[in-house]
Amino acid sequence: MARPPARVTSSGQPEERRGSRTRTRALRALRRNPAGSLGLIITVVVVLGAIFGPLFAPYNPTAADLNAVLSPPSATHLLGTDQLGRDILTRIIYGARVSLLIGFLTVAIAGTIGTIIGTIAGYVGGWLDTVVMRIVDVQLSFPFILLALTINAIVGIGFRNILVSLVLAGWVVYARVARAETLKIKEREFVEAARGLGGNDLRIIFRHVVPMLLPPMIILSTLQVAQFMVAEAAISFLGFGIQPPTPAWGNMMADGRDYLFTSPWLVTFPGLALAITVLGINLLGDWFRDVLDPRFQP
After folding, report:
1. Which helix (DSSP H) or strand (DSSP E) does residue 133 occupy?
2. What value does the mean pLDDT take over residues 170-192?
């Protein structure tokens, strides 16, 4: 029986061969970049802890225990308790769910919206490109966290509204990168060939251009997850985000700031959780860059 022909990607390489080469580059990048391995380990541990940690959490994250108020770290409470006697370790575990969910959902929504808008603007050009880029330029002229705070103050507090504010503040980064990459991709031979064969613009965009955008978008998204997590923590710290008693790293630090000098573990441990998680995701993003960006190939 004749073997079916191998599928060919837009770059002209058989799909199986390209997949094998990508896996080889990923393993080589891990060996060459120990920091990437550390980032992968940290991210996997945090994600697994957020998913399965509540099954093994020692206490209820919202239940107060007035007999254990402001207890320092001990065998009973490994990271101490807060001003209401709630276990800090348990609340950090549950807070990881909020931070990661906000980070990944914002990247998924803002990345999809921004990539589509930027790709269409770059491919179509003309007045549409001009209008979209002027909107992007105006929005990028405002500091990201200030813009997110302003939008959040308008739409209101809560999980859904903080997600909306971060999406509205963050889609422009994806739009600019997607538009810049599209301007280069639409002049390549395979796009010209598809256009010459009578392919309509919508099909060319989603069949040929968007797949070529995936590597830079994945790299950008990995780094943006960390930024959105920090933004959520900052907004919650200021009281506009996730509201108590729901545990979130930002509002946990806000609750502990009045006890900073007497009970520093209230702020220290949530802050360390956020810092270590962001570090791991950023290191993982550097590893993705080494694997997916041809400019960093040996």
Report:
1. helix 126-140
2. 88
